[in-house]
Amino acid sequence: MSTSYEVRYASHPNAVKKMDTTELREEFLIDNLMKPDEVVFVYSHFDRFITGSAVPATKALKLETIDPLRMENFLDRRELGVINVGGDGVVTVDGTKYELTYKDALYVGKDSKDVTFESKDGSKPAKFYMNSAPAHQAYPTTKVTKAEAKKLELGSLETANARTVNQMLVKEVVKTCQLQMGMTELKTGSVWNTMPAHVHDRRMEVYFYIEVPEGQAVSHFMGPIKETRHIWMQNEQAVISPAWSIHSGSGTSNYTFIWGMAGENLDYTDMDISPISELR
Q: What's the family (predicted)?
């Protein structure tokens, strides 16, 4: 088979207090993405959020349904966000082709039936990173380039958190039901993302770290404000952040991460800031 999946269950913050490093990584780290000629999914019971990847190296790959969905087609009751982090590729949705170059995004609406992924050059395959959330309204499939994203310049070099937030699949750019996706790029000399940290109890989030230089790593912080934990992460790994958890990270170099959210609303600014002096 070209499609594989695993299921992760939701965790209470009190349970996380008792987890050792191995258990924490097994529960929240996603380290099996970007397998050549495979579609990989992790289905989380946090907001029924799915994280996945498709890397069509020697053949086209099809978006197939998975057993937990109990649906004939993957998108019968879902929406999908795709961002290409590899070579040039094509996503075909019900006969319409969308060419995605590096860091282009595609929103695929509910009720889409036939979705396939291809690379322009198998020696430099496309790497399609995917997020999916339940949907109850069909919105048009829409391509969004990085140039078309709504951009926020945040932080500063003095606090090592100067970064550009590219809001790509957000309500100001494209219509979605509850899925939001974007990309944050840290400037050279900066290592902190999402600092000050925050929580948003109305939405969960997944971070996917890319452009982490060889030999470098990112320490991703999670957990309640007063009792945080960390997970060391490598390039092209993702991490699940529950709604009760902060989500922030610090790298040994600058890097980029893709964020995806789902939950109660589409208000990007709906967050509770965690004062740096109160982190524990």
A: Belongs to the KduI family.
If phi > 0 it is left, if psi is from -120 to 50 it is alpha, else beta; for residue 72 that is alpha
CA-to-CA separations, 136 to 18, 77, 110, 249, in angstroms, rounded: 37, 6, 8, 33
198 labelled ligand-binding: yes
Indicate the pTM of the whole model: 0.97
65: tokens are 């349904």
230 is in an annotated binding site: no
* CA neighbor of 38 nearest in space, from 4, 67, 10: 4
202-258: per-residue pLDDT in tens? 999 999 999 999 999 999 999 999 999 999 999 999 999 999 999 999 999 999 999
One-letter amino acid at 32 equals: N
Q: Is 136 annotated as a binding residue?
A: no
CA distance 186 to 257: 9
Q: How far apart are CA 60 and CA 67, in angstroms?
A: 22
Tell me: is residue 45 an annotated ligand-binding position. no
C-alpha 214: how far from chain center: 21
DSSP one-letter string for 67-120: GGG--SSTTSSEEEEEEE-SS-EEEEETTEEEEE-TT-EEEE-TT---EEEEES
CATH numbers and ranges of domains, the chain: 8-278 (2.60.120.10)
Contacts by residues 213-218 (CB-CB < 8 Å, ≥ 24 positions apart) = 213/253, 213/255, 216/251, 216/252, 216/253, 216/255, 217/251, 217/252, 218/249, 218/250, 218/251, 218/252, 218/255, 218/257
SS3 label, residue 141: coil
- Hey, is 241 helix, strand or coil? strand
What residues pair up with 119 in beta bridges, in sequence order? 89
Place of tokens 């002096």: 277
